[in-house]
Amino acid sequence: MRKILVVGAGQSGLQLALGLQSYGYEITLLSNRTPDELRSGRVMSTQCMFHTALQHERDLQLGFWESQAPRVEGLGVSVAAPDPASPSGYSRAVDWVGRLDGIAQSVDQRIKMAGWMETFAQRGGQLVIHGAAVSDLDYFSRLYDLVLVSAGKGELVAMFGRDTARSPYATPQRALSVAYVHGLGPRPEHPDFDAVRCNLVPGVGEFFVMPTLTVTGRADILFWEGVPGGPVDAFQGVNDPADHLSLTLELMERYTPWEYARAMKVELTDANATLAGRYTPTVRHPVGRLPGGGLVLGVADVVVANDPLTGQGSNSASKCAASYLESIVAHGDREFDEAWMRATFDRHWESARHTTRWTNAMLAPPPEHVLRMFDAAGRLQPVADRFANGFDDPSDFEDFFYDAEKTDAYLAAVGGEGVTAG
Ligand SMILES: Cc1cc2nc3c(=O)[nH]c(=O)nc-3n(C[C@H](O)[C@H](O)[C@H](O)COP(=O)(O)OP(=O)(O)OC[C@H]3O[C@@H](n4cnc5c(N)ncnc54)[C@H](O)[C@@H]3O)c2cc1C
């Protein structure tokens, strides 16, 4: 059977390794961490995944935590506005929740990646714990029919040139900070079901709250995305997790007091429950050339790394793994040459381009017609529902998000009383 090397054991690498294994391929998986190191390590993401991405996991019988993880049935949006009458100076100008057609779920990557890695090894896969360097890949590329680099945003991305035409940003667009907590109070807006909540604070950033399954059970994630140089870009150098949580809460109290009201009693889930950082959204050329002339194919974040503002990275990684799996299997015994590698990426890009366009648009200040749509969604449930389901299928935004005329035509068609163009 054909031999494939997968470098990097995250969402895409493990999903591909397990998928290929189920088709009988001989897979070697390189991971720079053991399952135990992952489990006891730092949180890595908020990893909320929507229906299509979860279905790819189910198709491979990999939805091991589905019954334990909170069922996310909606996606809510709040927009903060300065309000001199509010003690914090901000109140909520927009507040609605859209219902998802299929549930979303977040399973802490520490649990999922550790569990999937163990499953891969139990099923006879060759798991090698080693942080791969380019020189290793040079050597290995001669021994394998195909080398897939699924090492996320790690150093190996340097092998893949930046695609400037598809990468409009040259610097990070948000400063990220995450805290996993227990003890968040129920959401008064809809206490009967779970949802992800996006709180937009114009000019300042975004604050997300989402339920998750973590190493200590059910929890909630408090996730700030701060505009660089702004008041939420304040976590660099905050190394003590308790200080990180205090700062998170302070910013909530100021900019999203309705979320802070639920968070008075929260505590961190564990000693590694916080994360802060930033990165530049980047699309890369998919084929890397090794010093010895061998070729490797980039997977998921290696080739398309979007800002987590729209919660798409794990979704896109799952979609990429599913698409690459089909392309590999369909290729049979033929050589995995450069033309095949490019075609395989192009096929994935058909979906990833929508994710990228939408995420990059959301990083910019919202234009008037988008603000009009957010406002209308509070009165028109179908608009709220459609926006929420765009997180599962961002290609739908082409039809009602980017262009003021299309947005207004859509709002008029839905029957928005008082919704006018311009
Ligand atoms: C704060 C934050 C919040 C996010 N929230 C969401 C969200 O809500 N929803 C969503 O869909 N996405 C979210 N994402 C994005 C998502 O986590 C990533 O896009 C996704 O994990 C990418 O999957 P991947 O397989 O490409 O890489 P990863 O999951 O990053 O896996 C790469 C793996 O390769 C390993 N590795 C790196 N270098 C080497 C090497 N040289 N040798 C061996 N192994 C190596 C790494 O340690 C890692 O285990 C978020 C990201 C961040 C930072």
TrEMBL record:
Identify the residues that the record assigns to the Styrene monooxygenase StyA putative substrate binding domain, covering every copy. 152-262
Q: Which Pfam families match?
A: Smoa_sbd
- Its name, as the record gives it, is FAD-binding oxidoreductase
Native organism is Streptomyces niveus (Streptomyces spheroides)
